[in-house]
């Protein structure tokens, strides 16, 4: 487990220094060894989101939901990725399912309300969601 945590810390450092290419190489190795481990799936989601590969990032968020349906982190990450892909209705639906499975998760509830508000008011710019102070990493 120490090797896992050390590698995750290394990947986080690579992301901070904007070295997404090396981070992708490191995460691929971890995914081979620990394909369904929650920490690995979360960092994989983060790596691909930061590299702009939102479909791939979404894939890992969905894996978190499948393997850990009672943890809100997968739903939050999927909703953010769907937002980046301009799939706002799907983002809202993911939040709803997340709140059914993980009630009282404040960050997920904030995200749900914001997306719902955006969908109800098309004059708002979706970039406001990205500018909000919600933290999902």
Textual characterization of the structure:
- With 137 residues, the protein is mainly alpha-helical.
- It is built from eight helices and no strands.
- 34% of the residues are buried.
Task: Give the tags.
single chain; 8 helices; 137 residues; mainly alpha
Short description, anyone?
This protein is an all-alpha fold and 137 residues long. 75% of the residues lie in helices and 0% in strands.
Which percent range describes the beta-strand content?
Answer: under 5%
If you average the pLDDT, what whole number results?
89
- Coarse morphology: globular
Rg calc: 15 Å
| Individual helix count | 8
Helix content: over 70%
Distance between the ends: 21 Å
Largest sheet: none
Q: What is the structural class?
A: mainly alpha
Low-confidence stretches: none
Beta-strand segment tally: 0
User: What are the secondary-structure elements, in order, as H or E?
Assistant: HHHHHHHH
SSE diagram, text form:
Layout: H1 2-16, H2 20-33, H3 38-50, H4 54-67, H5 72-84, H6 88-101, H7 106-120, H8 127-131
């Amino acid at each position: 487990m120490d090797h896992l945590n050390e590698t995750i810390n290394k990947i986080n450092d690579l992301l901070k220094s904007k070295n997404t290419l090396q981070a992708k190489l490191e995460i691929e190795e971890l995914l081979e060894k620990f394909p369904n481990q929650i920490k690995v799936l979360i960092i994989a989601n983060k790596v691909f989101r930061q590299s702009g590969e939102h479909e791939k990032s979404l894939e890992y968020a969905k894996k978190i939901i499948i393997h850990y349906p009672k943890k809100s982190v997968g739903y939050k990450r999927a909703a953010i990725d769907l937002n980046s892909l301009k799939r706002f209705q799907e983002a809202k639906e993911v939040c709803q399912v997340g709140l059914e499975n993980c009630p009282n998760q404040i960050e997920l509830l904030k995200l749900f309300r914001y997306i719902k508000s955006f969908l109800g008011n098309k004059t708002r710019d979706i970039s406001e969601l990205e500018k909000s102070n919600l933290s999902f990493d």
